[in-house]
Amino acid sequence: MPSKKSLNNGNKITLEIGVPQKGNIKVHSQIINDLSSGIYSSPSSCVKELINNAYDADAQSVVIRVKPIEDSISIIDDGSGMNAVDFDNNFAWISKSNKRNNGELSPKLKRPLIGKIGIGFIAVNEICEELEITSTKEGEPIKFRVNINFKNYYQEETVAEDGIIKGAYSLINEEEDSKEHYTIIRLLKLKESVKNVLDDRLYLSEIVRSKHKDFDTVTFDSMKEILDLHTQKNLKSFSEDNAYIQFIIDLASYIPVEYIPGGPVEGFKRKTLSEIIKLHENLNFKVDLDGIYLKKPIYFPYKELSNVVEFHDEVNTGDDTIKFKGYFYIQHGLLVPRELNGVAIRIRNIPIAEQYGFDPTFMRYPNYMEQLFRNWVSGEIYIESGLEDAMNIDRKSFRITHPHYLALQSYLHHLLKNKVFKIAHDEIYEVAKEERTEEQKKITTDKKKKILKTKAVTYTKKTADKKPKVAQVNKNEIKAPIKILKSSSQNTIVELDEAEIKKFKKKDWEVLENVFLIFELAYKESKGDINSLRSLFYHKINEWKDIK
Amino acid sequence: MTKQPVYLHNSSHKDFIREKWIEFAQEMLTAGGNLSLITFPAEEMQDLHLFATKGLIEWEQTETGGYKIKKGKVTCFEKSDKIWMKLSKKLINATVEKEEIGSYFQSKYKAIMSKQTKIFPADVINLDYDGNISKNKVSIEDTIGLIFKYQALHEKNFSLFLTWPQTENEDEQSYKDMLKQTIEDNLDDPNAVQFKEKFETFFDSLNDLNYEQLSIIGLAKVIIKKASEHKFEIFKNEFYLYGEQNRRKMFSILLNFEFSKNARPHKIYSKDVVKSLTTLTDLNEKSN
Questions:
Q1: B residues 58-97 near A, CB within 8 Å?
Q2: Cross-chain Cβ contact A68/B93 below 8 Å
Q3: CA nearest A220 in B: which residue?
Q4: Which of A43, A264, A438, A539 could serve as a FRET partner for A307 with CA atoms 20 to 30 Å apart?
Q5: Are B70 and A217 an interchain contact pair (Cβ–Cβ within 8 Å)?
């Protein structure tokens, strides 16, 4: 057990004038207390801490059960387990965890450890009143069962000599087969607000239009199905879906699991992308949440106008080197879901950012620059070494003045400016522009064919009028910008007077051209009868509206 | 640790009893075809497989290799950590509680009574014990009492199956006394005259009952007493003794109950109590 030391009451600074005094800046456990309460307020942020603990304990399979009752959450892992003493050392003293005492890698599978000070564990008291842990270690013929009560400590802060008490536990050791190794964690008596997030019965009943709300079941069979449904429903943001689905996606964003098949970027077989995908497959870490495997919810289906920029690089700052690799995906048009727009910086595979892990500011890339293209981009940076010291204790943000942060920021901004946004402009925007023009032309021609009820429309320029004699000039003569010279079901010839057309704004002309064509047609068919002209004109205008 | 004799879950007798569960449970299917079931499925989940095969519940295999309940509501109880883990992995969208059913019902009393949990009401409650029921933390008498109380809250008809092994040598004395006392009380109960008359046609005194008779009559009476207190009438019942040669003897009681809102408890009791003496079918004799 770590040594205990009483904290004194400050640095004994006095108000005496002119006497030099010395003091220390100290971290009192109150700070840890405040931090742990504020950081982990959502169910997903609490549960991901427990999953990542299982990962650190070399688990290969984690099973989470929430449905259908939603008044408890059970988490079972096949990791190395612990005994009662390990539990007390690592989890009963928040911020004094010994997790990294034996190195930076997990003992068996040599995974880079995610947890550091054990602060994540206390997160659970934010979502449940009671916690039950049962665990056993391979080679030891005992297991322990501990029941932790948080509820009694919600109201009043109980300050002990060496910290603040957040819960009280009762523990018992029992016999167990020495071959077994597992940990079972059960979050009991979930708070109402958490139950509301997990209970999507109403939402499901709306989907299946069922009258039997008590019997409606989870309708998704895989993470891919959830994302496909978003595409079908044309959702622009994860936040447009119900709270339970958001919980699943958020949870999957912060744990070291594989990508959705085809993800992160479909259709690009590049070296670094393949390495990143393989890296996750090799972790052999599966998390089963109510029958679906959680997978990184990053999946950009193949788009013709898109590209990928990869990098595997390092930057130096003083004596330190930051090594990293990653990619940026660039597509034509707004990137959806919006939460994936930005950059996810992953330390030990876990993204350091609020909700879903992406930093939409691209490490504070100047707001006024590339306002269009920054909406088309999503990227991930896997940190291989360095940067960890720049991370704040909440694991959701960085100290932006830290040299490591500044070095990476500089690299990233340079990459964005000189490569990513350049590709967005030169290879996507410009190509799209030509295509857009072509597409627009085709649409316009098709509309005209429909208006004129002909298979082809041929344009001819109006030849310049012979200069009339002064006496013949009629100031009231109306010059038509457009005239139908010949019309048939096979081909219609339209004469354009470019000089007249130029009198109209280009934007207006697209509409006016059609109106003029309709008028010309109506005029021809009416054979000069004004009533017939009116009726034919409006009839054709209405037809045109349908075509539009 | 004393090793308990292992009871094999696969036998023709057990299969017969399982088929009987289906027969009784089918009568409880609601109009929507959904069945709410509370059970102890053990590792093999044979009862659930049968319920699924017969269409009383529907499930489908998931990408994780489990079974996801698609139709029906399933609640399971399992005390052993190892089996609980296996069941939790296998069953999706089912509730798997790691507690003795009686303790669970007691600890959740407030929540269940205020209808804050989703377990009750149930259509079928299958108490399929394979261990000694006299050693339960919460007595079988209290557990059954709570079941009727919770079902009565929803005024819900249901099937109750109770299966347990003959463990005379290991049974707690207090349990044995409870069985005897229950029958004795009935013999003196003016509401149970019919029971007394029928009892006396078979036996001269309480001491004439062998342990099988004592167990099955005693527990059936406990159930009927609790049922009548909460206005549940029996409309279908069968009692079995089984266990092939060299295997442990087992008891099985199958009862279908109907909630009778306007009935008087003592009337139900005096009518139903005699059913505890309905012929006990010994599957060994039947097969001979």
A1: 62-64, 66, 68-73, 81-82, 84-85, 88-89, 92-96
A2: yes
A3: B62
A4: A438
A5: yes
Could you tell me if A46 and A117 are in contact, meaning their C-beta atoms sit under 8 angstroms apart?
A: no
Based on the number of CB atoms within 10 Å of its own CB, is B172 exposed (0-12), middle (13-18) or buried (19 or more)? middle
Instruction: Note every long-range contact of B202-209, with CB atoms under 8 Å and residues 24 or more positions apart, other chains counting.
Output: B202/B277, B206/B180, B209/B183
Longest dimension (CA), chain B: 62
Dist CA B32 CA A212 (whole Å): 8
Place of tokens 């539009």: A548
Count CB atoms within 10 A of the CB of residue A412. 24
**Cβ B88–A65 below 8 Å, yes or no?**
yes
Percent of chain A, pLDDT > 70? Answer: 82
Q: Check if B190 contacts A (Cβ < 8 Å).
A: no
| Whether B103 contacts chain A with CB within 8 A | no
Q: Which of A69, A186, A211 sits opposite B118 (nearest CB)?
A: A69
Residue B252 backbone dihedrals phi, psi, to 5 degrees: -145, 125
Identify the burial level of B53 via C-beta atoms within 10 angstroms of its C-beta, where 0-12 means exposed, 13-18 middle and 19 or more buried: exposed
Task: Go through the domains of chain B in sequence order and give each one's CATH number.
Answer: 12-25+35-287 (3.40.50)
The answer to whether residues B78 and B58 touch, using CB atoms and an 8 Å cutoff, is no
Does residue A205 have a pLDDT over 70?
A: no
Give residue-wise pLDDT tens across range B245-288. 777 889 999 999 999 888 777 777 677 766 666 667 877 776 55
**ipTM of this complex:** 0.85
Question: Would you call A74 and B94 a contact, using CB atoms and an 8 Å cutoff?
Answer: no
Q: How far is CA A370 from the centre of its chain?
A: 20
Separation CA A182–CA A117 (nearest Å): 22
Question: Both tokens of residue A245?
Answer: 């689905």
pLDDT computed for residue B7 by the predictor: 45
